[in-house]
């Protein structure tokens, strides 16, 4: 551990740029990460996420910019900076002929750990990543999930001040993902952590802050709640109710449109007599007006509607992501942010 000033950012990045010939992969990226923060790094394929992480860790030379880890310049003093970092790159490279236990002992040795310190560090890393069942199997024979966990174990083995992890839950099953997320939250108390991920549920679950990068540039920076606040779906209310006739359903739609907190209403017919309405919230002009969900619930009760389901949205991070990043369409157009509600709300391609 470095014992660095806790009031200073543990990761400081200024003007980070990487060019490959005429192509600009990372374009003047700047941000800080303080102790105790988990930063989610989001972006579509080719946005510059992995390239940025390689430069932050000193594994790829930057074209321009400055990166400091706990006060150490990654370019001019890489050894000091890298001693304080744990890095899980994409693909979790390891020596395939080694077993996990031999590989972790090797990592402990090159990290300068000896004797009981090395044994304790390896044991804790194995426990935290639940590698015990495969410790003596060659890494090349392991599943993708176990290989990923070997990579995670080597990244945390020396208890680094800073963790940089590229897709830390890639290849893990749902239970393993949950365990890793809990581990990240636990470790974040005294570390600065950057993770890249395409799982939006992961951002909401473990990240205090998220950056969205597109074509090498940061296009959004905020807490998950702040980013979801930019979504059309923030505070929207979805209600499914049973009506005797189509006219009754039409009257209900008109009543929902008349609410002072409504900006628009979308209606979809369900099976049989059921109708589903999505009521989108108008911007609140003051704090005295009732939330839209409360207005809808009161209206439904007053009208005697047979409500089968009613819930309020927090906002949709996937919609904000699509709104801020470029699509892969040949004409470069962005996808319609309202019509793509069939996209999985838990994941995006990255």
- Given as residue ranges, the uncertain stretches (5+ residues, pLDDT < 50) are 1-5, 329-350
Count structural domains: 2
Give the end-to-end Cα distance, rounded to a whole number of Å. 32 Å
Order of helices and strands, N to C? EEEHEEHEHHHEHEHEEHEHEEHEH
User: CATH homologous superfamily name of the largest domain?
Assistant: P-loop containing nucleotide triphosphate hydrolases
Q: Radius of gyration from the CA trace?
A: 24 Å
Our count of helices gives 11
For the biggest β-sheet, the strand order reads 6-7-8-3-9-10
What general form does the structure show? Answer: elongated
- The CATH topology of the largest domain is what? Rossmann fold
Strand content: 25-35%
Question: Structural class of the secondary elements?
Answer: alpha/beta
Mean pLDDT: 89
Largest sheet: 6 strands, mixed
Summarize the amount of helix as a percent range.
25-40%
Number of strands: 14
Q: Please tell me the CATH architecture of the largest domain by its name.
A: 3-Layer(aba) Sandwich
Domain ABC transporter: 11-240
Family: Belongs to the ABC transporter superfamily.
Keywords: ATP-binding, Nucleotide-binding, Transport
GO molecular function, one term: ATP binding
């Amino acid at each position: 551990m470095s014992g660095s000033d806790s009031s200073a950012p543990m990761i400081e990045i200024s003007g980070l740029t990487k060019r490959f010939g005429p192509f600009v992969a990372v374009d003047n990226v700047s941000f800080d990460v303080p102790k105790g923060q988990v930063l989610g790094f989001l972006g579509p394929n080719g946005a510059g996420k992995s390239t940025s992480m390689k430069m932050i860790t000193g594994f790829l030379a930057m074209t321009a910019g400055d990166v400091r880890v706990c006060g150490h310049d990654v370019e001019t003093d890489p050894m000091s900076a890298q001693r304080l970092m744990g890095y899980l790159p994409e693909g979790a490279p390891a020596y395939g002929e080694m077993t996990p236990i031999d590989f972790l002992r090797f990592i402990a040795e090159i990290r300068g750990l000896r004797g009981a310190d090395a044994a304790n560090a390896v044991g804790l890393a194995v426990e935290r990543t639940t590698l015990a069942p495969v410790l003596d199997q060659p890494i090349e024979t392991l599943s993708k999930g176990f290989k990923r966990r070997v990579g995670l174990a080597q990244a945390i083995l020396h208890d680094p001040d800073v963790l940089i992890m590229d897709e830390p839950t890639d290849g893990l099953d749902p239970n393993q993902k949950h365990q890793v997320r809990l581990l990240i939250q636990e470790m974040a108390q005294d570390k600065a952590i950057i993770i890249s991920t395409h799982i939006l549920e992961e951002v909401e679950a473990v990240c205090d802050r998220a950056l969205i990068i597109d074509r090498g540039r940061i296009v959004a920076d905020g807490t998950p709640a702040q980013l979801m606040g930019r979504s059309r779906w923030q505070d929207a209310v979805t209600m499914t109710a049973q009506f005797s006739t189509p006219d009754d359903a039409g009257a209900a739609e008109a009543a929902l449109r008349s609410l002072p907190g409504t900006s628009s209403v979308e209606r979809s017919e369900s099976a049989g007599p059921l109708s589903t309405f999505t009521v989108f919230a108008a911007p609140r002009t003051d704090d005295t007006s009732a939330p839209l969900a409360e207005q809808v619930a009161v209206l439904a009760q007053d009208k005697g509607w047979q409500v089968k389901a009613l819930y309020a949205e927090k906002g949709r991070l996937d919609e904000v992501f699509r709104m801020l990043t470029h699509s892969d369409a040949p004409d470069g157009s962005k996808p319609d942010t309202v019509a793509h509600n069939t996209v999985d709300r838990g994941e995006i391609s990255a």
